Amino acid sequence: MPESEEPRAADGDGEATVQTEEPYLNDENAPEKPLVSEAGAPPLSKNAQKKLAKMQRWEARKAEKKAQAKEQRKMEVERKRREWEERLAAMATEEEKEKLLESRRSLRKERMEQRSREKDEKRERLCGARENGQNVVVDLEFAHLMNPNEIHSLVQQIMYCYAVNGRCSSPAHLWLTGCSGEMDDQLQRIPGFDKWIIEKEAKSYIEALQDRKENLVYLTADSDNVLEELDLKKIYIIGGLVDRNRWKGITMKKAEEQGIQTAKLPIGNFMKMTSSQVLTVNQVLEILLKFLETRDWKTSFFAVIPQRKRCQGDAEENAEAEDTLEDDQKDDEKASKKKCVEEEPCNC
């Protein structure tokens, strides 16, 4: 189902190679062959190559903005440090200094206690989801079709998934299946990943959930079945593949070969997309979580799908809601790096 357009290092960073037929190996007049992407993907059309170049420029701008933001944060920390030192130096007596220091220590202690409470509450919610929550699988068996940059992009999406799920009042129970090789290596580099309250399986979902195969539902935009409602008995699968534009129909084909159900989100019933209904893994999960909370697909789509992916009429209709969404997305990115990586061991 999901395809990456958002943090998509996907079609951006894979270098194209030129295919040649054996008779032309040393022939200067050999006909030019179409460019292909890595991992033996089909040749890219001219339109696809233009999109690829556009995405590369977008990635470059994104990296530049990220560096600027990092430098801005560094300057802000330094400014606050100087202000604190100046304030401390302005104290006339040692007694005043001690009172100021004690006040700061007390505030820090309160913050630490608050964070501890939030961690405990989050752990309770996630452990409860293991027993009673909606099961959602991220299928990681496509790693061999992605280059390291694309795998890194998918790992970032998974971090966002865990962060947003942990903040939900009624979270889902997440599964990572087919977690091996380079994908597993990159996930293991996340500090605290081994303490995440999820199911991590090197086996495929078919093997890990073989006793519940009749309840497996692969979410793919290529399905003819529209998902009207979420069923707690069902286990919804999200394809972990960045830049599926190179591999059209791959998740649908996989599900059909395995004989499991498929469904697509009812996006077309509520909004028009500027292009294909392509979403990242974390966006699909956020939509499912929002629907579990509201039981309203339209609210869920407009709360999650970025304005740039919607047609003008839909975007204007929900402009005010989008302002709030952008702030939430920034908070999600910050929280995913600060909160999702330092979990305590789970005893549930």
UniProtKB/TrEMBL annotation:
<feature type="region of interest" description="Disordered">
    <location>
        <begin position="1"/>
        <end position="81"/>
    </location>
</feature>
<dbReference type="GO" id="GO:0000049">
    <property type="term" value="F:tRNA binding"/>
</dbReference>
<feature type="domain" description="SAM-dependent MTase TRM10-type">
    <location>
        <begin position="122"/>
        <end position="312"/>
    </location>
</feature>
<dbReference type="InterPro" id="IPR007356">
    <property type="entry name" value="tRNA_m1G_MeTrfase_euk"/>
</dbReference>
<protein>
    <recommendedName>
        <fullName>tRNA (guanine(9)-N(1))-methyltransferase</fullName>
        <ecNumber>2.1.1.221</ecNumber>
    </recommendedName>
</protein>
<dbReference type="GO" id="GO:0002939">
    <property type="term" value="P:tRNA N1-guanine methylation"/>
</dbReference>
<dbReference type="GO" id="GO:0052905">
    <property type="term" value="F:tRNA (guanosine(9)-N1)-methyltransferase activity"/>
</dbReference>
<dbReference type="GO" id="GO:0005634">
    <property type="term" value="C:nucleus"/>
</dbReference>
<feature type="region of interest" description="Disordered">
    <location>
        <begin position="94"/>
        <end position="127"/>
    </location>
</feature>
<feature type="compositionally biased region" description="Acidic residues">
    <location>
        <begin position="314"/>
        <end position="330"/>
    </location>
</feature>
<dbReference type="InterPro" id="IPR038459">
    <property type="entry name" value="MT_TRM10-typ_sf"/>
</dbReference>
<feature type="region of interest" description="Disordered">
    <location>
        <begin position="310"/>
        <end position="348"/>
    </location>
</feature>
<feature type="compositionally biased region" description="Basic and acidic residues">
    <location>
        <begin position="331"/>
        <end position="342"/>
    </location>
</feature>
<dbReference type="InterPro" id="IPR028564">
    <property type="entry name" value="MT_TRM10-typ"/>
</dbReference>
<keyword id="KW-0949">S-adenosyl-L-methionine</keyword>
<keyword id="KW-0808">Transferase</keyword>
<feature type="compositionally biased region" description="Basic and acidic residues">
    <location>
        <begin position="56"/>
        <end position="81"/>
    </location>
</feature>
<feature type="compositionally biased region" description="Basic and acidic residues">
    <location>
        <begin position="1"/>
        <end position="11"/>
    </location>
</feature>
<keyword id="KW-0489">Methyltransferase</keyword>
